[in-house]
Amino acid sequence: MTNPALTAVAINCTLKKSDGEPSSTDKMIELVAGELGKHGVTLTETLRLADYRILPGVESDMGDGDQWPELRAKILAADVLIFGTPIWLGQLSSIGKSVLERMDAFLSEADDKGRYPSFGKLVVAAIVGNEDGAHRVTADLFQGLNDVGWTVPPAAACYWVGEAMHKTDFKDLPKVPDEVQSTAKLLASSTAHLARLLKSDAFPGVDG
């Protein structure tokens, strides 16, 4: 049996717009996407969310000027979401938090079997920072995303924070550390495998 084709979309929740400085989050997303590509998962687009107007709220469409609906459509069209975020004050970025708040709308958008729009979709995390907090961000992120229906595969977070209180950014490293590279490889293998299983045999829902 031929393996089904898989796609991924990435969201970069850096606070920097794309016309500003390069983003370390982009570098981590590229690492994760590259490893997923080795397993037949094609990255269709990386969405730099700071370039869009995402209105505050917990609905899928907050009205005039809200660009979240078009982002939401692109996110849900893919099999895998790479959720990229920097760490600020030990937490995921404010843009990342706004994404979780907007996805709260999924809870009221279930189908007749109780499945949210994100059911059968996988999510992995690409996290960078110059301070501690990767485990805290991973825990908060996956708890929220799982609540609204996303599937979290094994070893689903790839992160780099370096030594405590250092000044080096991930994008400025001369080489990706071996531990980060091996984590990305394991993430990709687990994610692609589970995504294919779910694409071939979807979650049944409450009446399955």
TrEMBL record:
SUPFAM superfamilies: Flavoproteins. InterPro entries: Flavoprotein-like_sf (IPR029039), FMN_Rdtase-like_dom (IPR005025). It comes from the Bacteria. Residues 9-156 form the NADPH-dependent FMN reductase-like domain. This is NAD(P)H-dependent oxidoreductase.
